[in-house]
Every structure is written in C-alpha cells, then in structure tokens.
Known about the structure:
Blueprint lengths: L1 H8 L3 H21 L8 E3 H8 L3 H9 L6 E3 L2 E5 H7 L6
Antiparallel strand pairs: 1-3, 2-3
Amino acid sequence: MQENITQLHNVEPQQIINPINDLKKQIEDLKKSFQPKEPTEYLTRQEVVEMLKINLSTLYNWTKNKKLVSYGIGARVYYKRKEVENAIIKLNH
C-alpha cells in the first residue's frame, strides 16, 4: 500500500485528469450508442403534398432538382419525414 502512495506522489495532476476525461468521453459515447433509436418514418407522396401544402408537380420538381430525396420499393415512392422537415430552411427577411 505504501508503494502505491509513493508512486502517486510523483505524478502530475494532468496525468491523472486526462485519462479520467478520456474515460468519461468513452462512457458518454457508449451511452449514445445504446439509446433506443426512433424508427424512420416514411411518407407517401400524397402525405408530403398535404404536409407541405404543395401540389404533386411541385413535389416532382423538388425531387428532380434534388431538394428532396425519394425512396422507392416496387412502384411506390416514399420520403423520409426527417429529411422533408430538414429541407425546410430559415429565411432571413
């Protein structure tokens, strides 16, 4: 026991603090990775049109011009709700 105390006597405080801070960061990263994730919500074209109060031709143009990203399976087209919401930008007037 006495030997351990002597070893710590010659250690700079930063040599103890840095590993502790690194450990805290690793713990926070682990906590984030174990958080339950929200499932991706997909919207149909009609739902996006109603949500944004636009018509189908506007949605088509926005998709064609890469303002919105569409996803599909078979003949169905979907949009991710988060991506649609994130496409809306703040205007500075």
